[in-house]
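Hi X.,

You mentioned you wanted examples for the new student's onboarding notes, showing what a folding record looks like when two proteins sit in one file. Here is a clean example. The first protein comes first, with its sequence line followed by its structure tokens.
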Amino acid sequence: MKLEARHGVGGIDPHKYSATLAVVNSHGHLVEVASFPVTPAGIEELLEFLTDTELAIDRIGVEGSAALGQPLTVALAAAGYDVREVQPNRTAERRRRRRRAKTDIEDAEAIALETLADPHLPPAGKHATPEAAWEELTAVHDWRDSLVLQRVRQLTEAEAVLVSLPLSIRSQLPSTSRVLPQLEALETFAGQWDGLDAVTRVRLDRLQAALDDIRLLTGRIKALDKRIPPLLEQLSCTLTQICGIGPVTAMDLLVEVGDPCRFATEAQFARWCGSAPIAMSSGEGHGPARRHRLDVGGNRNVNSILHIVHVTQVRCHGPARAYVARKIAENKTKREARRAHKRQLANVIIRHMWKDQARQRTSPGPLPVTG
């Protein structure tokens, strides 16, 4: 009897200069494996290899589809393949569970097997054909994140140096846990302390240099912040109309989510960002689950944004406070009410992004500025 299976899936393990492709059939048996250089010619070879394979490829899983695998993801999507994102922790767990070795071939096969096992993997990449404004916004986002991290590191290191100063100096500084006011006070008192030893002088010079660096970084961050609203306007973004979402938060969402139309339903987006709770219950029989827990497998950056927006709305937004109060009145715990509200926020955000994307595709220019 002939098997119904002349279908299979692919798995790609990308690196900086090469990518390894494994093809498995519908029974999970490895059929073919090959490596290709990550160059225009190498990607053409990979596409020809997929065309010539004896199986009909249903899906292709790519690890790191928005990073090292991004050129491959774009080319595969343009060729009409169904490309999915495979999280690295999934293949690592499979390899650890089976005590397998770690090579490019093993990794590519593990990615293919995960793609075969889960047909509901999220779509790969962020944009099939990214717009210039979105790419510029991504560059601004990455640069700003780098500057913020540098600023945090300067403040953290300065705090350790402040603690090592003599008590005669520390006693004159503001009694606050914040580092910046203490550094500014040190600058005010500069030259008023006599008879300091060489070590203390070096530490004071270091703190003054740190303050100069922090001011420089802060100025650059503020300059980048001014570039965000015009880019949001070019992308027809209305996320800032949601209570608790400002320009920086809207930028973070646009960069993390990418093309919102790659999510077919609200439930798919909620599962991707980890706002859809996972059933964790027992004793309910054939009825619905009574208890749920947090999904820690979703996009943690977007989940963190949802949490911040939730906290802001519960503090100052009437409809959000009423929603949480209603859930608590339904015998939900505060934690369960918070998760329910975050799930609702995920729906609101993806609906806004779908409408913005539709408007962007039909409108020749940015939204008009309203008062």
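Then the second protein repeats the pattern, sequence line and then tokens:
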Amino acid sequence: MTEQTTTPPAPTGEIRDAITRQASLGALLEEVKTAYNDARAEAHALLEAQYKTTGTSKIDAVLPDGTKVGSISRQGGERAAQVIDDEAFAAWVRDTYPTEFEVEMIPMRLETRVRPGFAAKVLAEATAAGTARYVDEETAEVHDVPGVEIRPALAATHRMTYTRRSKASALTGRELVAQAWRRGELAAHVLPALAPEQG
């Protein structure tokens, strides 16, 4: 006995509309994501260059008509102590704090290392001090720690903040951007690929 196959019902107008919306928004989302990532990278590079030249760390975001919709602020990167020369650091610990230096017997060889907890403690103190130094808790002796440097740990970033509703403006910065988009004031400048064709 052969199985009978049934033809699925044709999609209703409601389903077709939902699928069309998903397909359209998905295609537009890819375009917007790409354009946003490009704009963000360009803005970051230009803002970093300006910061190095003038020290400016905050700039307003304005629409073509001059309306402020937000501001972008530089978030400084973080610096942290890092071991850059394992041998020099290990030798210092071995000679200065022998109890924090471990020797482990592995078949056919000996392996030595700084106790991880002590290494973390030294690096945390150096990071807090902003210099590769460690103060002995018992003797108060200050040690310059060899093999350790303060280096960038997190790169600087920029944070966009949109304006809020106020007495001067009943709309938020995001709403002002949406309004300008609907009026056709942004498409050619911000997303040329999605701008209406000029007839």
